[in-house]
Amino acid sequence: MKADKQAFLSFLQEQLDWFGERNCTLSFWLRDDDAALVKPKLEQLCTLTAHHNIPLCLAVIPKQVGEELPAYLKAFPQVSVAQHGWQHINHQQKSIGEKAAEFGTRRDIPDALGELEKGRAKLEALFAETFLPFLVPPWNRIDSALAQQLPKVSITGISTFNWTAARYPALLQVQSHIDIIKWKKQKRFIGWQAAQDRFALQMARRKASPFEPIGILTHHLDHDDGCWGFLEALFAATNDHPAARWQSLKELAYRNLSD
Q: Which end of the chain is less congested by CB atoms within 10 angstroms, N or C?
């Protein structure tokens, strides 16, 4: 394991050196899903990102959140909040092979918009300026026809997990690209070699077009020791390199507006 970790860090250093030699800066951003309650793993994530000065976007489930989380986050100015659906339940039919989604093709669009509007209003009231009107659809899936209508309920941006953004001209889009958890069978860290492979693909894309930030996706509730160790090493290595920078969702959204 130590050899795999060192191989990843050496690879990362080489890649960042490549960008630095060409006077390019490689941007990263961090999105963590399924936040609602103040639990030890959320506290660990907030403390870790604060220690390394890493902007963190928490995708918060509106129906489940109360006043404890916004009060807690006042001590962590590096944290912003996006909207993680309404209550994170599946409305698709898994029995016939449909992939899970809260806002998929089975939803009546007016009903879905009503839930999303209620969720946006609640998060806006609880988190004030910390909240950004970005939707992170649970399971990273949303019906395209519904997505097109999100501005009607004052949701102006969307973030999913994909290499390329869908065509939603009315929405700001900031994607996540690398999920550090292996979900099938036993949830666990994907491993250093798998992480290196996924970073290699994204680095290759940025060598052709370095402007899109690399989105790291985490789920604090499901982290094992491997996940925490990986994040610690990644944050330290990138913070120490002049060709790497971490950006907040707010910075990326404003950048999109100015493009």
A: C
**What residue type is assigned to position 158 of the chain?**
I
Helices (H) and strands (E) in the chain, counts: 8, 11
| Residues 126, 150: Cα–Cα separation, whole Å | 21
Using the structure block, give the residue that is written with the tokens 């962590």: 76
In contact, 207 and 18? CB cutoff 8 Å: yes
Q: How far is CA 84 from the centre of its chain?
A: 10
Contacts (Cβ under 8 Å, ≥6 apart) of 88: 34, 61, 64, 102, 138
Host H or E run for residue 35: strand 26-35
Q: How far apart are CA 67 and CA 107, in angstroms?
A: 29
Q: Fill in the amino acid letter for 134.
A: F
Question: Do residues 179 and 194 touch, judged by C-beta distance below 8 A?
Answer: no
pLDDT in tens, the chain (259 residues): 678 999 999 999 999 999 999 999 999 999 999 999 999 999 999 999 999 999 999 999 999 999 999 999 999 999 999 999 999 999 999 899 999 999 999 999 999 999 999 999 999 999 999 999 999 999 999 999 999 999 999 999 999 997 666 678 889 999 999 999 999 888 999 999 999 999 999 999 998 876 789 999 999 999 999 999 999 999 999 998 999 999 999 999 876 544 4
Q: What is the dihedral of CA 2, 186, 81, 62, to 10 degrees?
A: -170
Question: In sequence order, which ranges of 22-108 are alpha helices (DSSP H)?
Answer: 40-52, 68-73
